[in-house]
């Protein structure tokens, strides 16, 4: 700790915050340089570049469906889902994480010894309207970041519904290069459609 009472502690915290920010800023370029040096490639054989990931077309999801599985577009899978009443109407709604399954989004990385999955995800939320009918209220492909760094762990940690609140927990952990770690649960609640 830096001497000097509360002012010293504040300076110490600022110093730590700056060090963490610098590590996060420097970690990504370092990992990119390492990936380029080792010959990492995308699924189509092109050199790996996190700023130039294989392009993705996001599907238009159905407005309504009979079951949660009817929302899943071709070429995508449901990674996880949770059910619970999100709009206080006494009916079980659901939230799901959909993930693309396209081999072109698998990045070859000799450092990992296995392909890096850059396939994107969609957060889907649907409210139940009567028996056997769900209405989509959220289809968001921006909130969960697409993995673009071989040194970064998968950012998605958890999706949960408890007491009418949808919580999505994301984490930023670099296992080499940056040394930063942060986890943030994001709760969403309300009668109206959830917006991000």
Describe the structure.
With 196 residues, the chain is of the alpha+beta class. The chain has one domain. Helix content is 17%, strand content 32%. The protein has one helix at residues 5-38, and strands at residues 64-65, 76-84, 93-100, 106-107, 116-117, 121-128, 134-140, 156-162, 165-173, 181-188. The strands form three sheets. The chain has a five-stranded antiparallel β-sheet, with no helix packed on it. A three-stranded antiparallel β-sheet has the order 8-9-10, with no helix packed on it. The chain has a two-stranded antiparallel ribbon with strand order 4-5. Strand 2 (76-84) and strand 3 (93-100) form a beta hairpin. The longest helix is centred in the first third of the chain and has 34 residues, at 5-38. The radius of gyration is 20 Å and the shape is globular. Residues 1-35 form the signal peptide. Keywords: Signal.
